[in-house]
Amino acid sequence: MRNRLYGGKNEYRGNFDWIAPVYDTLAFIVFGHRLKQAQVVFLNRIPPTASVLIVGGGSGWLLEQILRKREPKQVVYLETSAQMLALASQRIVRKALVGSVDFRVGDETSLQPDERFDVILTLLYWIFSLKQP
């Protein structure tokens, strides 16, 4: 996994560690239920045995919905924020959800070239460039 150097610290662009503890509350204040409604619009199109990549999944609310309703074969949960990743992982454990989830700190550049997915989801995540300068 490659770290990027910004402002003298190793950190990923758009790291949400600082807002993780209050992210869900702020998202609700700003978007109400509309954000969650938008995130599940196409949920029923995910095949039950799919291999799913979630990039920038935040605190894990959508992951919870996917595991409950679609039962995918495998999920790679890729998040630049270690704090968000911890929240997502804790959510799945706390709710005793079953599924094969590979939680990884990183961004799209940390994927291996041979990794393949049936479904790729990004949530409030901007992919600025897939090529390194």
Short descriptors:
single chain, two-stranded antiparallel ribbon, four-stranded parallel β-sheet, 6 strands, alpha/beta, 4 helices
Description:
This protein is of the alpha/beta class. Helices cover 28% and strands 18% of the residues. The chain has four helices and six strands. The chain has helices at 23-31, 34-39, 61-69, 82-94; strands at residues 5-6, 9-10, 51-55, 74-79, 101-105, 119-122. Strands 5-4-3-6 form a four-stranded parallel sheet. A two-stranded antiparallel sheet has the order 1-2. Strand 3 (51-55), helix 3 and strand 4 (74-79) form a beta-alpha-beta unit. It is globular. The model is unreliable at 1-11 and 125-133 (pLDDT under 50).
Distance between the termini: 17 Å
Our count of helices gives 4
Helical residue percent?
25-40%
> What is the total tally of β strands?
6
Mean pLDDT: 79
Strand content: 15-25%
Would you identify the regions where 5 or more consecutive residues have pLDDT less than 50?
A: 1-11, 125-133
Radius of gyration: 15 Å
Q: What is the helix/strand order?
A: EEHHEHEHEE
Content-based structural category: alpha/beta
Question: Which strand order does the major sheet show?
Answer: 5-4-3-6
User: Main β-sheet, in a few words?
Assistant: 4 strands, parallel
The backbone outline, from C-alpha atoms, is globular
